[in-house]
Amino acid sequence: MAIATESPTSAVSLQWPLSDEQFAQLCALNPELHFEYTCTGELIIMTSTGGWTGNRNVRLASRLQVWAEANGSGLAFDSSTIFKLPNGAKRMPDASWVQLERWNALTREHQEGIPPLCPDFVLELRSPSDRLTDLQDKMAEYLANGARLGWLIDPIARVVHVYRPGEAAERLEAPAEVSGEPVLSGFTLRLADIWD
């Protein structure tokens, strides 16, 4: 698979480490691909999901969106949103939420582009192609960069790993639901159909 670095109207000269502008141009020239970029300069091409993972992902993101709209204290984002974390990494959580005051503090340009912040809440859904240790490292990175709550949902093992700053990850075995309190006030995610 080739990664386009030129289009009929523009070209990108890639030099490592990639600048924010180079990364944005690379993404724009390859809209069919999804990239992440680590704080150490590693470019990651994200694999597409399988059918069940895609369906689970949309169910999880839509439940977060319904709650966020009703609650009004922040905005929910889907798996195609790239955030630039304080450590320089560019990450795409499967679902995320940002408190409204933090979002409104960004410039319009940052809101339209790659928001330079770590979401307050991040959710990662393990797919069969994901290594659990990679996702656990990613969750630790989110927390180190300002996330206040994280859920790593593993339908393969039927486990939810709950991450909070300053605490060891909590492992919940096949829970029927998981609470977002106090970060996601009033949000409870029901998981029965995610385990099926």
UniProtKB/TrEMBL annotation:
- Show the Pfam families listed in the entry: Uma2
Q: List residues of the Putative restriction endonuclease domain.
A: 21-191
Record-linked InterPro entries:
Nuclease_put_TT1808 (IPR012296), Restrct_endonuc-II-like (IPR011335), Uma2 (IPR008538)
Matches recorded under SUPFAM superfamilies: Restriction endonuclease-like
| Name the UniProt record assigns to this protein | Putative restriction endonuclease domain-containing protein
Biological source species: Candidatus Entotheonella gemina
